[in-house]
Amino acid sequence: MPKALIIGTSNMVLRGGASAAIIAHFGAENVQNMSLGGTSGTYLAIFQILSRIPVGQYDYVFIDCPPSLNMLTVNAMAAADSVLVPMQCEYYALEGLTALVDTISKLAAVVNPELKIEGVLRTMFDHRNRLANDVSDQLKQHFGDKVYRTIIP
Known about the structure:
The protein is α/β, with parallel strands linked by helices and 153 residues long.
């Protein structure tokens, strides 16, 4: 059975399986208020902490981030191999997605060349709403097979 490490960035509690519990505090308020124009070392705080975990201890590491592009989110993406994007099927969420894709491209070019979008998970989807269907169609056109068939209502 695969082992997963789940990191919640709201209070930075790291949990993995029934037997592993690691608690780390990053001073989230300080990290969130940092400028996004820092040096590449600024983006590696989470990566440096994760690098202390023995290789092979976990099969998957999930870093749960707030829905904003602040330094904490950028740090998480600098440490990640890929990004799973939960996407609310609304127009303004598309604008946020554009900014996220741009940030991922910049991070891949400067800090983490392995970073990619793993998939897009449509959330808060109401099939009766025309706008939700339009947004869903746009996601499929742009991301193709990366849009998961599973939809969260």
